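Subject: for your reference before the review

Hello V.,

The reviewers asked for a structural picture of the protein, and I figured it would be easier to keep everything in one thread rather than splitting it across files. Below is the amino acid sequence we used in the manuscript, unchanged from the supplementary table.
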Amino acid sequence: MVTEALWLTLDLSNTLTRPRSHSNMFVVADQLGRLRNTLCDIGTPKDILQQVALRRLKVAEIASEAFGIVDWVVHNLWQSAADGIFDGCERTVTAHKAANAARTLSSLGSETQFYRACSIHYDALSLDSPSPDITLAVMWFRQNVSKNSPPDQVEEMLRAILSQSRLMRFGFKQAKLTCNQLSWRICNPTWTMLCADICANMEQRPVSNNKSLKKALRLNRRVICILEKYQDFRPTRIRPLLAHTHFACARHNAARNQGSLAEKDFWSAIELQTSVVKIGQFGDLETLRDMVQACVEHRLKSKRWNKALVTVKQSLELVKSHPPAKSVILSAGFDGFRRFLESSRDVAALPATWTFFDTLGPFHRSNCVQVLLSVVDFLTTLSSIYREIGKFLDALKTSGNALDIALELYSQYPRHVDYYFKALACHANSASADEKDAISHRGRALRSLAPRLVELLDDIR
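And here is what came back from the structure prediction:
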């Protein structure tokens, strides 16, 4: 695929040396379109795709000025603008151009209803805020696009549904209808990738709607089967979508109380996402964080304490030589435990929680700010639970650890002074049940807090 992109670039360079003519302009437009599709397939960075899309749209506008309202010229302008929206061009301006070109094509009498739906879709995208007209556009596409429609029309309908899934809140009926209609449209990699994006944007349905969960799972399983065929051929493009789809399956299985199936999908998503991060796509670190944290919380809710620790340790093994990913995984592990403890207040989880902290304790001393923030939150939550159950000495010891780490954090990153205040307040509240000791301890804490507060106020001024 990379070789094909290089050959297309060379052909385009040769074509551009020729005089401007009707035939040469048509060849340039065709070559730019093919180059764009190839660059998408090989996972070209978004900033480069955006530059290609801007130049392609500029060529299409020059052709439109030179040759007027000719069918292929207007179609090329519409296609260039429509692709540009999804390649990172400025949405409102580019969508306005796509909508105008679609209206012109509709007036030329070619596929009138189809281009009418396109104009509604792109008019809605040209607005600054989400418009309900996107739903109207999807309805028009569903009425006019069938299994036997040309591939570009099916793809355009999928794009409209993708816009709807991104900008509008999917209700139960919309998600059900989308699942039914998408199920027969997955037969090539481009459509599959669009369907995977749509599935990732669908809200997780509540357990009471078990039927819709099954439909979404079947669709996601089919997406996975097709994506897996292409992941070695287009790894940088396919693997992130494959990870997202496994993650969606994991959440759906968790909602249906299918614990073992959910764990399998969670781990498949984490493995794929770590491979994506390791090849240099740092923008996907937050997605990896979400996956690890969700897997940890799921295993804790199932009271599989040791498995939660194993999830983090095995994830760290996958990214041994990638410090940013290690920090993200550690932070996700601590946040997963903290969120579980905050919501459940499950005392039975406390021994496993300390095992988790003692095992991963050496790692958080790496001084990564993200990990230190998560550890402070983790320890202050743990201390508050100890106070609730009357274990004041444990609460005091835990809050003391939190205060030490918060002080270390504050000394290196003064902007996070609020975490120091939080740990200090927690430590003050963790005094023994003896009222005199409590008063004395709070007094010492407040005396320590006062100069820090003055410094903070000075900084604000």
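For the response letter, the relevant points are probably these. Residues 266-366 form one domain. The chain is about 80% helix and 0% strand.

Happy to draft the paragraph if you're swamped.

O.
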